[in-house]
Design a protein that fits this description.
Blueprint lengths: L1 H43 L4 H33 L1
Helix pairs in contact: 1-2
């Protein structure tokens, strides 16, 4: 019986920790996405070849983060519907 309680406790703690870790990583991804989009808009307001290059360079980080954001939104919507 002690083994069953210990196993259940460890499983519960691990699950809660992983859910918390997922939330924190999602939050970090969203904050980075907001920061990169803001930077892109500020840089894109000016003119010049360096600004054009930097705007395109920021897309390299923005596109994967938009995909992560979409996955987070879809996961949350599915969790609400189920």
């Amino acid at each position: 019986m002690v083994t069953t309680v210990t196993t259940t406790t460890v499983t519960t703690v691990t699950t809660v920790t992983m859910l918390g870790l997922g939330f924190v990583l999602g939050l970090i991804a969203v904050v980075c996405l907001i920061a990169l989009l803001t930077t892109k808009e500020l840089v894109g307001a000016g003119e010049g070849p360096k600004r054009s290059f930097l705007t395109r360079f920021l897309d390299v980080g923005i596109v994967p983060l938009i995909i992560v954001f979409a996955v987070i939104v879809i996961t949350q919507v599915v969790a609400i519907l189920v």
